Structures are given as C-alpha cells and as structure tokens.
Amino acid sequence: MLLSAKMPVNAMADLLDEHDTRLWRVLMHYVEQAHAKSDWSALRRIAVDETSSRRGQRYVTNVLDAENSRLLLMVEGRSSEALGAFAKALVEHGGDPSQIEAIAMDMSPAYVKGATEHFPQASLVFDKFHVMVLAGQALDEVRRELQREGTDLKPIFDTAKM
User: pLDDT tens digits, residue range 32-85?
Assistant: First the structure.
C-alpha cells in the first residue's frame, strides 16, 4: 500500500515481480474497505462533474467533497439518477440528504434535475466557466442584433493608446 501511493501499479509489479492484476485486486480490497468505513455525516458541500470513461461517449459522474476535493462516489453515466445514487450512498455513510447545503456543478439539465429532486434545500452553484460562456454568447447575440439594426459599434476609445 505504501508503494501504491508513490508509483503506478505497473511499476510496483515490476519491482515486486508480481502480476499487476493481483496487485490491483489487493489495492481494490483495501480501497473498498476504507470507503465502506468513511463517515459523511459532516459533509455540507459537494461538487458534481462528469468525465469521459475510456474512449467514445461513455461518461461517469464524479461526486466530490467540495471542501477537500476527495472523491466520494463515481457513477456510470451522467443522468439525474447519479445524484440519486449519491443520496442513497450518503445515507449509507451516516449522512442525510438534507445536510447538503450547496452543490457546485455545470449547467447540465440532468444534474440540475437530480439536485432539485434529491437535495431540494441545497443551493446550486454553477461553475464560472459555463456562466462566462453563456454571457459571451448573450453578448454576441446582442451585438449581432444591434448591427442588424444599423447601430455603429465602433469603440469609443482607442485601446492602442492606453
């Protein structure tokens, strides 16, 4: 276990002259054991995001403790039920869905639906990247509309002289 914190499993296998699948089984045993004992009763803020799993359009949803970025749960897919699975796991780890105060996420309709269904009292916090993308799109739309109306959109000041 000490080696696994410092090097990849393949390197451990070479060093210990052991097959990597055996080492993975041992590691997974201890990881699952530690995960089962983890206490989530003090959890108040979570972060939810998806990432691709392998190649193609296969995704997993990650739920993290927003305070320390610790991975709490990984669920296949990116649906509203991923948050339902987390609500169930939260209870299994000594927590209650009503204790979650804030959920940081992107603006995925599936995640918004899951959050409002399973954590209705939690505040939804959208990440600034997605908010800024929407703001930029809205600005472009207004700019195009003004240009269609014939508005002169030349800058008031010359930034080159600043």
Answer: 888 888 899 999 999 999 888 777 778 899 999 999 999 999 999 889 999 999
Q: What percent of the chain has pLDDT over 90?
A: 62
Q: How far apart are the first and last CA of the chain?
A: 58
Q: What is the domain extent for residue 4?
A: 1-30
Is 115 in the same domain as 53? yes
Same domain, 80 and 141: yes
Instruction: Give me the DSSP letters along 4-56.
Output: GGTS-HHHHHHHHT--HHHHHHHHHHHHHHHHHH---TT--EEEEEEEE-SSS
Whether 108 maps to a domain, the answer reads yes
